[in-house]
TrEMBL record:
This is N-fatty-acyl-amino acid synthase hydrolase PM20D1. Signal peptide: none annotated. The keyword Lyase does not apply. GO terms for biological process: amide biosynthetic process; amide catabolic process; amino acid metabolic process; proteolysis. It comes from the Eukaryota. Pathway: Lipid metabolism; fatty acid metabolism; Amino-acid metabolism. Keywords: Hydrolase, Membrane, Metal-binding, Protease, Transmembrane, Transmembrane helix, Zinc.
Length: 245
Protein backbone atom coordinates (compact mmCIF):
# COMPACT_ATOMS: atom_id res chain seq x y z
CA UNK A 1 0.00 0.00 0.00
CA UNK A 2 1.43 3.20 -1.02
CA UNK A 3 0.69 6.48 -2.59
CA UNK A 4 -1.74 7.96 -0.16
CA UNK A 5 0.59 7.36 2.78
CA UNK A 6 3.15 9.53 1.09
CA UNK A 7 0.86 12.56 1.17
CA UNK A 8 1.51 14.47 4.38
CA UNK A 9 -2.13 14.58 5.44
CA UNK A 10 -2.05 15.29 9.17
CA UNK A 11 -4.67 12.83 10.36
CA UNK A 12 -3.44 9.98 8.23
CA UNK A 13 0.11 10.53 9.38
CA UNK A 14 -0.99 10.54 12.99
CA UNK A 15 -2.80 7.26 12.54
CA UNK A 16 0.18 5.91 10.68
CA UNK A 17 2.54 6.72 13.53
CA UNK A 18 0.18 5.20 16.09
CA UNK A 19 -0.10 2.17 13.82
CA UNK A 20 3.66 1.76 13.78
CA UNK A 21 3.82 1.87 17.53
CA UNK A 22 0.93 -0.50 18.10
CA UNK A 23 2.01 -3.11 15.58
CA UNK A 24 5.62 -3.21 16.66
CA UNK A 25 4.60 -3.27 20.32
CA UNK A 26 2.26 -6.18 19.60
CA UNK A 27 5.02 -8.04 17.82
CA UNK A 28 7.37 -7.60 20.74
CA UNK A 29 4.75 -8.40 23.36
CA UNK A 30 3.86 -11.58 21.50
CA UNK A 31 7.50 -12.39 21.15
CA UNK A 32 8.38 -11.93 24.80
CA UNK A 33 5.25 -13.21 26.50
CA UNK A 34 4.53 -16.50 24.77
CA UNK A 35 6.00 -18.26 27.74
CA UNK A 36 3.39 -20.83 28.62
CA UNK A 37 3.01 -23.87 26.45
CA UNK A 38 0.40 -23.57 23.77
CA UNK A 39 -0.52 -25.96 21.05
CA UNK A 40 -2.01 -25.33 17.66
CA UNK A 41 -4.43 -28.01 16.54
CA UNK A 42 -4.14 -28.92 12.92
CA UNK A 43 -5.48 -31.84 10.96
CA UNK A 44 -2.43 -33.97 11.60
CA UNK A 45 -2.49 -33.41 15.36
CA UNK A 46 -1.06 -30.90 17.74
CA UNK A 47 1.91 -28.75 16.86
CA UNK A 48 4.03 -26.97 19.40
CA UNK A 49 3.16 -23.26 19.25
CA UNK A 50 5.50 -22.08 21.94
CA UNK A 51 8.58 -20.29 20.68
CA UNK A 52 11.90 -21.18 22.21
CA UNK A 53 14.11 -18.33 23.35
CA UNK A 54 16.27 -18.95 20.32
CA UNK A 55 13.29 -18.78 17.96
CA UNK A 56 12.16 -15.52 19.56
CA UNK A 57 15.55 -14.00 19.00
CA UNK A 58 15.64 -15.29 15.43
CA UNK A 59 12.24 -13.72 14.79
CA UNK A 60 13.44 -10.29 15.89
CA UNK A 61 16.79 -10.61 14.14
CA UNK A 62 15.10 -11.66 10.91
CA UNK A 63 13.06 -8.45 10.82
CA UNK A 64 15.97 -6.24 11.85
CA UNK A 65 18.21 -7.76 9.17
CA UNK A 66 15.53 -7.24 6.55
CA UNK A 67 15.17 -3.56 7.51
CA UNK A 68 18.93 -3.06 7.08
CA UNK A 69 18.81 -3.91 3.37
CA UNK A 70 17.86 -0.63 1.67
CA UNK A 71 15.44 -2.01 -0.93
CA UNK A 72 14.39 1.46 -2.00
CA UNK A 73 12.15 2.27 -4.92
CA UNK A 74 13.48 5.75 -5.72
CA UNK A 75 11.18 6.55 -8.64
CA UNK A 76 9.02 4.83 -11.23
CA UNK A 77 12.17 3.86 -13.10
CA UNK A 78 14.84 3.61 -10.44
CA UNK A 79 15.32 1.05 -7.72
CA UNK A 80 18.27 -0.23 -5.72
CA UNK A 81 18.74 -3.46 -7.64
CA UNK A 82 21.74 -4.45 -5.55
CA UNK A 83 19.60 -4.34 -2.44
CA UNK A 84 16.73 -6.19 -4.15
CA UNK A 85 19.10 -9.02 -5.08
CA UNK A 86 20.64 -8.99 -1.63
CA UNK A 87 17.20 -9.34 -0.08
CA UNK A 88 16.68 -12.55 -2.08
CA UNK A 89 19.95 -13.95 -0.71
CA UNK A 90 18.99 -12.82 2.76
CA UNK A 91 15.68 -14.69 2.92
CA UNK A 92 17.33 -17.85 1.55
CA UNK A 93 19.78 -17.74 4.42
CA UNK A 94 17.31 -16.72 7.13
CA UNK A 95 14.64 -19.32 6.26
CA UNK A 96 16.49 -22.48 5.19
CA UNK A 97 13.56 -24.88 5.63
CA UNK A 98 11.27 -22.80 3.41
CA UNK A 99 13.86 -22.99 0.67
CA UNK A 100 14.65 -26.69 1.05
CA UNK A 101 11.22 -28.20 1.76
CA UNK A 102 10.04 -30.73 -0.81
CA UNK A 103 6.53 -29.26 -0.37
CA UNK A 104 7.59 -25.85 -1.62
CA UNK A 105 8.51 -24.63 -5.06
CA UNK A 106 10.28 -21.27 -5.15
CA UNK A 107 10.61 -19.10 -8.24
CA UNK A 108 12.15 -15.70 -8.83
CA UNK A 109 9.79 -13.69 -10.99
CA UNK A 110 10.42 -10.42 -12.85
CA UNK A 111 14.06 -10.33 -11.80
CA UNK A 112 13.64 -9.94 -8.04
CA UNK A 113 10.13 -10.90 -6.92
CA UNK A 114 9.39 -14.24 -5.28
CA UNK A 115 6.65 -16.78 -5.85
CA UNK A 116 6.27 -19.77 -3.55
CA UNK A 117 3.94 -22.66 -4.27
CA UNK A 118 3.21 -24.69 -1.15
CA UNK A 119 1.72 -28.05 -2.05
CA UNK A 120 -1.15 -29.28 0.12
CA UNK A 121 -2.20 -32.90 0.49
CA UNK A 122 -5.78 -32.37 -0.76
CA UNK A 123 -5.90 -31.17 -4.35
CA UNK A 124 -9.70 -30.80 -4.17
CA UNK A 125 -9.28 -27.75 -1.97
CA UNK A 126 -8.96 -24.47 -3.84
CA UNK A 127 -5.69 -22.76 -2.97
CA UNK A 128 -5.32 -19.33 -1.41
CA UNK A 129 -2.59 -16.74 -1.63
CA UNK A 130 -0.63 -14.51 0.74
CA UNK A 131 0.95 -11.33 -0.60
CA UNK A 132 3.45 -8.79 0.65
CA UNK A 133 6.16 -6.56 -0.77
CA UNK A 134 9.71 -5.80 0.25
CA UNK A 135 10.53 -2.58 -1.54
CA UNK A 136 10.22 0.61 0.47
CA UNK A 137 9.82 4.30 -0.29
CA UNK A 138 12.92 6.46 0.21
CA UNK A 139 13.90 7.64 3.68
CA UNK A 140 16.54 10.22 4.57
CA UNK A 141 17.81 10.42 8.16
CA UNK A 142 16.08 13.79 8.77
CA UNK A 143 13.12 13.37 11.07
CA UNK A 144 14.17 9.92 12.23
CA UNK A 145 15.30 9.22 15.77
CA UNK A 146 17.61 6.51 14.47
CA UNK A 147 18.94 5.97 10.95
CA UNK A 148 16.01 4.61 8.90
CA UNK A 149 17.89 1.53 7.70
CA UNK A 150 19.49 0.64 11.01
CA UNK A 151 16.81 -1.74 12.25
CA UNK A 152 17.70 -0.73 15.78
CA UNK A 153 15.65 -1.77 18.77
CA UNK A 154 14.98 0.80 21.48
CA UNK A 155 12.68 0.45 24.47
CA UNK A 156 10.92 -2.51 22.93
CA UNK A 157 10.45 -0.98 19.47
CA UNK A 158 12.18 -1.88 16.23
CA UNK A 159 12.81 1.26 14.16
CA UNK A 160 13.23 1.55 10.45
CA UNK A 161 11.74 2.02 7.01
CA UNK A 162 9.73 -1.07 6.17
CA UNK A 163 8.93 -2.18 9.73
CA UNK A 164 5.22 -1.85 8.97
CA UNK A 165 5.26 -1.40 5.19
CA UNK A 166 5.82 -4.12 4.40
CA UNK A 167 8.79 -6.20 5.48
CA UNK A 168 6.86 -7.06 8.64
CA UNK A 169 4.47 -9.09 6.47
CA UNK A 170 7.22 -10.66 4.37
CA UNK A 171 9.19 -11.74 7.41
CA UNK A 172 6.07 -12.70 9.37
CA UNK A 173 4.86 -15.03 6.62
CA UNK A 174 8.28 -16.62 6.09
CA UNK A 175 8.91 -17.00 9.81
CA UNK A 176 5.53 -18.64 10.39
CA UNK A 177 6.14 -21.05 7.54
CA UNK A 178 9.68 -21.82 8.71
CA UNK A 179 8.49 -22.63 12.23
CA UNK A 180 5.56 -24.72 10.99
CA UNK A 181 7.87 -26.74 8.74
CA UNK A 182 10.28 -27.23 11.62
CA UNK A 183 7.38 -28.74 13.60
CA UNK A 184 6.43 -31.08 10.79
CA UNK A 185 3.48 -29.16 9.40
CA UNK A 186 2.00 -30.41 6.14
CA UNK A 187 -0.87 -28.31 4.82
CA UNK A 188 -4.01 -29.89 3.39
CA UNK A 189 -4.86 -26.86 1.28
CA UNK A 190 -2.25 -25.64 -1.18
CA UNK A 191 -1.32 -21.99 -1.06
CA UNK A 192 0.80 -19.45 -2.85
CA UNK A 193 2.99 -16.71 -1.44
CA UNK A 194 3.90 -13.72 -3.57
CA UNK A 195 6.49 -11.12 -2.56
CA UNK A 196 6.73 -8.13 -4.87
CA UNK A 197 9.85 -6.02 -5.36
CA UNK A 198 8.25 -2.95 -6.99
CA UNK A 199 4.92 -2.48 -5.25
CA UNK A 200 5.69 1.14 -4.34
CA UNK A 201 6.09 1.97 -8.02
CA UNK A 202 3.09 0.12 -9.52
CA UNK A 203 4.19 -3.51 -9.38
CA UNK A 204 4.57 -3.85 -13.14
CA UNK A 205 7.53 -6.20 -12.89
CA UNK A 206 6.58 -8.01 -9.70
CA UNK A 207 2.86 -8.41 -9.09
CA UNK A 208 1.94 -8.26 -12.78
CA UNK A 209 4.46 -10.96 -13.72
CA UNK A 210 3.34 -13.16 -10.84
CA UNK A 211 -0.27 -12.83 -11.99
CA UNK A 212 0.73 -13.75 -15.54
CA UNK A 213 2.48 -16.84 -14.28
CA UNK A 214 -0.52 -17.94 -12.23
CA UNK A 215 -2.89 -17.22 -15.10
CA UNK A 216 -0.79 -19.30 -17.46
CA UNK A 217 -1.17 -22.17 -14.98
CA UNK A 218 -4.91 -21.54 -14.74
CA UNK A 219 -4.71 -21.04 -11.00
CA UNK A 220 -7.98 -20.04 -9.33
CA UNK A 221 -7.76 -18.77 -5.78
CA UNK A 222 -10.32 -19.17 -3.01
CA UNK A 223 -9.09 -15.99 -1.34
CA UNK A 224 -6.15 -13.68 -1.19
CA UNK A 225 -4.67 -11.70 1.69
CA UNK A 226 -2.52 -8.66 0.99
CA UNK A 227 -0.82 -6.03 3.08
CA UNK A 228 -3.10 -4.54 5.68
CA UNK A 229 -2.33 -1.85 8.17
CA UNK A 230 -3.83 -0.16 11.19
CA UNK A 231 -7.49 -0.28 12.15
CA UNK A 232 -8.66 3.20 11.13
CA UNK A 233 -11.47 4.90 12.98
CA UNK A 234 -13.01 8.06 11.57
CA UNK A 235 -10.35 8.43 8.90
CA UNK A 236 -11.85 6.99 5.75
CA UNK A 237 -14.63 9.27 4.48
CA UNK A 238 -18.09 7.72 4.51
CA UNK A 239 -17.32 5.11 7.14
CA UNK A 240 -18.78 5.26 10.63
CA UNK A 241 -17.07 2.31 12.21
CA UNK A 242 -13.43 1.26 12.57
CA UNK A 243 -12.12 -0.21 9.33
CA UNK A 244 -9.39 -2.82 9.22
CA UNK A 245 -7.39 -2.26 6.06
C1 LIG B 1 21.93 -0.07 -2.48
O1 LIG B 1 21.96 -1.20 -1.65
C2 LIG B 1 23.26 -1.57 -1.23
C3 LIG B 1 23.12 -2.81 -0.36
O2 LIG B 1 22.56 -3.87 -1.04
C4 LIG B 1 23.90 -0.46 -0.46
O3 LIG B 1 25.21 -0.83 -0.10
C5 LIG B 1 23.91 0.81 -1.27
O4 LIG B 1 24.37 1.87 -0.46
C6 LIG B 1 22.52 1.12 -1.76
N1 LIG B 1 22.54 2.27 -2.65
C7 LIG B 1 21.83 3.37 -2.44
C8 LIG B 1 21.98 4.45 -3.47
O5 LIG B 1 21.07 3.50 -1.50
ZN1 LIG C 1 3.04 -1.25 1.29
Amino acid sequence: MTAHWRNPVGTLLGVFVVGVAVLVALLLIRTYTLAETKRVWLDKGALEAELTQEEREQLLEALKGAIRIPTVSFSETEQNNTALAEFGQYIRKAFPLVFSSSLIQHEVVGGYSHLFTVRGSDSNLQPYMLLAHFDVVPATPEGWEVPPFSGEEHNGYIYGRGTIDDKNCVIGILQALELLLKRGYKPRRSFYIGFGHDEEISGNYGAVKIVEKLQSREVKLSFLLDEGLAVLDGVIPGTKRPIAL
